[in-house]
Design goal:
With 331 residues, this protein is an alpha/beta fold. The chain has twelve helices and nine strands. Bound molecules: phosphoric acid mono(formamide)ester.
């Protein structure tokens, strides 16, 4: 089934057809960013709130740019600039924002499940922009779009996801998305950072970097999330980098046309060497470019669909046709 959800909370349980429909929409939105005038009226008159309780460079900026390229108005709120700093709960904040009639709220929060919580309390679409160690679906979708662009299809590829999987919402969302699209997924890292549940989700588990990378089509490096580590998960940063840093020597074990991804921000020299990050196999900047297109597609699909549903409900309730705007006709 094509993507028809009211919210985007995660990729767990999302089928291949829904994921493919988002990627197809993103691919068609991509050329707008190459135009001289990078704007279309698809979401004119709509309002998108970016509610970010954690720092972000890529996600927040690309959601804002995506909304603006669709002519939506944007409002950015950080934890320090909101009344959360005065003790207001996340739900109260969201309900107050909803009372101002936004058309979507994009939420980043350190608590796993925060986006699901808001989706139960507000009626406008909620987009999960990263919740704790749980999911980061828009990041995984832009990763999938990047892989699909480079390799033509995702089914049949072998993808190694390497590093701090325990704390990685990016790794978890990618595992769901890649498996749904038919890739073989290897998760690679020290036993302390690779949850056992990943095997139950269909991943091959490797503890040696060379075994995980050998003959892989795609290598996705994950950031070591020191800010989420309450205990020592490995003896030292030097030891981690000795065993798990992706160097040119290790890349040579992968397939000759391998592509290297990293969601950013990168710890250069810890999980990835600069030679690899900036080298010929790296598609890291392509990922960032694709982030805008994926977020344009998500905003468009969720907001246009939500308005179409509201109009249908109003029509049913009042028995009178509702006049739709140019962008509100169908999802
Ligand atoms: N990849 C990612 O989520 O980056 P930011 O934290 O900068 O948004």
């Amino acid at each position: 089934m094509a993507f028809a959800e009211r919210h985007l909370l995660g990729l767990e349980g999302m089928g291949a057809e829904a994921i493919t429909s988002i990627l197809d929409s993103a691919a068609s939105f991509k050329e707008i960013s190459d135009r001289d005038i990078k704007k279309v009226p698809a979401l004119r008159g709509k309002t998108v709130i970016n509610l970010f309780y954690e720092n972000s460079t890529r996600t927040r900026t690309s959601f804002e740019i995506a909304a603006k390229r669709l002519s939506a108005d944007t409002v950015n709120i950080s934890e320090s600039s909101s009344s959360a700093s005065k003790g207001e709960t996340l739900v109260d904040t969201a309900r107050n924002l909803e009372a101002m009639r936004p058309d979507a709220i994009v939420l980043r929060h350190s608590m796993s499940g925060a986006a699901h919580l808001l989706a139960r309390h507000v009626s406008c679409p909620i987009i999960n922009a990263g919740d704790g160690c749980h999911e980061h679906p828009s990041q995984a979708l832009l990763d999938l779009l990047t892989i699909r662009e480079r390799r033509g299809a995702i089914a049949g590829l072998t993808v190694a996801i390497v590093g701090d999987l325990l704390h990685s919402r990016v790794g978890r969302s990618n595992l769901h998305g890649l498996r749904a699209l038919g890739a073989t997924v290897r998760v690679v890292g020290p036993p302390t950072l690779v949850p056992r549940e990943f095997a139950a989700l269909g991943a091959e588990v490797h503890t040696r970097l060379v075994d995980g990378v050998r003959d892989a089509d795609v290598v996705m490096m994950l950031r070591v999330q020191r800010e989420r580590m309450g205990a020592n998960f490995f003896p030292s940063l030097d030891e981690y980098s000795h065993y798990y840093c992706l160097t040119e020597e290790v890349v040579r074990l992968a397939k000759p046309q391998v592509i290297i991804l990293h969601p950013g921000p990168m710890n250069r020299g810890l999980e990835i060497s600069s030679a690899v990050a900036d080298g010929p196999y790296s598609v890291i900047m392509n990922q960032v470019t694709n982030g805008v297109a994926v977020r344009m597609a998500l905003l468009y699909l969720l907001i246009a669909r939500s308005k179409a549903e509201d109009a249908a409900e109003l029509e049913a309730a009042t028995d009178a046709p509702v006049v739709r705007g140019r962008s509100g006709g169908r999802a």
